[in-house]
Amino acid sequence: MHCLPFLFVILQAQKAMFEEEFVDATVKLAKNMIFECMYPGLGFISQAEWFKMTVKGKNSMAIFSPKHGGLIRADYISKIRFLNSSVTANDISLFFHNASKADLGLYLCILHLFPHGPWEKVIQVVQSDGFEIRVPSNSHMVSEPGKNVKFIFQTHKSSPLKHVTWERIQPHQIDHLTYCNLNNGKSYGLKYQRKILTSCSQEMTSSSIVIHNVTASDSGFYQCCLTTNTGENEIFVMNLTVTDAKTDHQIVFFMAGGAALVLILVIFFIVICYYCRRKRVSRALWDTQIQSSKNCTRSEVLDHFQDNQEEDIYVNCPVFSQKPTAR
Q1: Residue 58's beta-bridge partner residues?
Q2: Which residues lie below 8 Å from residue 231, measured CB to CB, with a gap of 6+?
Q3: What is the enclosing helix (H) or strand (E) of 247?
Q4: Helix %, strand %, coil % for the chain, to 5?
Q5: Is the pLDDT of residue 305 over 50?
Q6: How far apart are CA 243 and CA 216, in angstroms?
């Protein structure tokens, strides 16, 4: 009986620890997958390593050192490779191919930073048809590259908020950007490849995040999920489009090139039509001249024939004497 209170304390501690465990990204199981692990800040990275989380512990998959390079463990040498051919110290993303249901589960990326210590990112692979947004977006924002983008969501719930979560939704992956626990006033910036700023304070009625220096790769759907103390949920979806300056120039270039090509074709068509018309006119004139020439020749022959008929014909005949011939 005395063990029951002690057991209850342990269960509560485990529950609290579980609540503090977060998955930074959720990836859809596919034959080919990409596990992103990019450190968004500054710092000297002495070593980085990938692990597969199992019931028994952590199973090392790959290791990277700026001094010694990358190494794939024997059990995974036929299934994974570093995404970039030249691995850099702040990007040790993995390319996972020929995946199966046996590869479902949790994966851990650890970067050892000086002087900050270890930096970890947890990725969960789940079996899903996709993570497309199934509700219409509440707002659409368009931004230029290099600008700072701020998303704000004002709740309509009267009950105090308990949890606030911001996510980026893609068809193959969900990136968990921030998590705010309003009961203790703590904000957890998750391990997204871009630095995200957020607000977290008790009794707040709105939530916001800021993404600095956005690029075209930041385009997509962003979702805010609110949970009140009474268990009510509210979802806000924002669609962000970041225009790419290079793409805009290419579009203008292609449009100008297309217009020039159309103009050239029109000019070519006009020249061809003019040439064909001129050729038909020249041929008609030529046929007219030939016909006139034929008519003139025939008329001259006829006139000559008629002139010859009107002329008098004289014949020299010998004159015979009418006297009888003497016998």
Answers
A1: 53
A2: none
A3: helix 245-310
A4: 30, 35, 35
A5: no
A6: 6
Contact by Cβ (8 Å): 263, 256: no
- The answer to whether 209 and 177 have CB atoms below 8 angstroms apart is yes
- Quote the tokens at residue 299: 């008329």
Give tens-digit pLDDT for 308-318.
Answer: 554 455 545 55
pLDDT at 155 over 90: no
Mean residue pLDDT of the chain comes to 77
DSSP letter at 216 equals G
Residues 6+ apart with CB under 8 A from 89: 44, 45, 48, 66
- Residues 74-90, mean pLDDT to the nearest whole number: 81
- Model confidence over 159-189: pLDDT tens digits? 888 889 999 999 999 999 988 888 776 777 6
Contact between 311 and 303 (Cβ < 8 Å): no
First-residue to last-residue Cα distance in the chain: 199
Candidates 240, 118, 300; CA nearest to 191 is: 118
The answer to whether the pTM exceeds 0.70 is no
Using CB atoms within 10 A of its CB, is residue 33 exposed (0-12), middle (13-18) or buried (19+)? buried
Query: Going edge to edge, which strands form the sheet with 80-82?
Result: 32-35, 94-97, 80-82
Question: How would DSSP label each residue in 145-156?
Answer: TT--EEEEEE--
**Integer Cα distance of 81 and 273 in angstroms:** 62
Do 151 and 255 touch, CB atoms closer than 8 A? no
Helix (H) / strand (E) element for 18: namely helix 3-19
